[in-house]
Amino acid sequence: MRARPGERSARQPTDWNVPNALTVLRILLVPVYGGLLLHGDGSHPWWRFWAWVVFVGAAVTDGIDGRLARSRGQITDFGKVSDPIADKALTGMAFIGLSLLGIIWWWVTVVILARELGITLLRFVVIRHGVMPAGRGGKLKTMLQTLALAALTFPLQVLPFAQAWRWAAYGVLAAALVVTVVTGVDYVFKAAHLRRSSARTAARRAARRG
Fold first, then answer.
1. Which carries the bigger pLDDT value, residue 35 or residue 23?
2. C-alpha to C-alpha distance for 27 and 61, rounded to whole angstroms
3. In angstroms, rounded to a whole number, what is the distance separating the alpha carbons of residues 60 and 26?
4. Residue 195 sits in a domain of what CATH number?
5. Does some domain include residue 72?
6. pTM score
């Protein structure tokens, strides 16, 4: 029996669901975090603390929306595309903001953001052939970036052994940089494979032979 006009197949969940709403919320929290982080040139521990609260809260929604989408069968193409974009918007704001404050070296921010922007554009280039969901390497990259950025956002000067905490955060940041570059190269190979093996490419080849 055919679905009535306006109805979706059970195999195609609607984009209007809680997981996608959390993803959109994460995007909306990006400018809030940026404003709190940069308030007073980042020199006030209280504002930095609230920036940390917003950052952590936004980051937590990333894990929640993914689990809800899988448990409720609400994985959508919108979610697959917008979820990594929300992650990149949040971490991108953090990298730029912390570099403006002199906490993260600019070359690190440029390398990471160039990779993130490049892979995002690559996703849109190959979207006609299929959606590239985030893999395990991408999730590890996001986790390491999030941990490092959360630690460097927090006003570490109020903690005992502040210097030790700071170097630990930079160690996590170094690991995030390595994983970011490696997974970026991996995504390029995956995109090339997706394009070669997609139904769209197969149809083109068949048309040429015909």
1. 35
2. 11
3. 9
4. 1.20.120
5. yes
6. 0.78
